[in-house]
């Protein structure tokens, strides 16, 4: 099993302050990718490498 720090978390929210809070809480343990709408999120996951 891979260590948690090797995982990327995709945060999707249309409110920047919510993204900022989640990034602050998670960035020490995970790689973070954040977007502000569902359409961009779907594009991000469809082009992300599969693990």
Concise account of the structure shown:
This protein is an alpha+beta fold.
Characterise this structure.
By secondary structure, this protein is an alpha+beta fold. Helix content is 41%, strand content 20%. The chain has one domain. Strand 1, helix 1 and strand 2 form a beta-alpha-beta unit. It contains 2 helices and 2 strands; from the N terminus they run E-H-E-H. It starts with 7 loop residues before the first strand and ends with a helix.
What's the domain count? 1
Coarse morphology: flat
Strand order of the largest sheet: 1-2
pLDDT averaged residue by residue: 89
Total helical elements: 2
Estimated helix fraction: 40-55%
Question: What's the main sheet like?
Answer: 2 strands, parallel
Question: How would the blueprint of this fold be written?
Answer:
Layout: E1 8-12, H1 16-26, E2 31-35, H2 38-47
Parallel strand pairs: 1-2
List keywords for this structure.
2 strands; 51 residues; alpha+beta; 2 helices; 20% strand
């Amino acid at each position: 099993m891979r260590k948690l720090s090797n995982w990327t978390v995709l945060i999707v929210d249309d409110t920047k302050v919510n993204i900022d809070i989640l990034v602050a809480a998670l960035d020490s343990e995970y790689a973070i990718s954040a977007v502000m709408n569902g359409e961009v999120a779907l594009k991000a996951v469809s082009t992300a490498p599969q693990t």
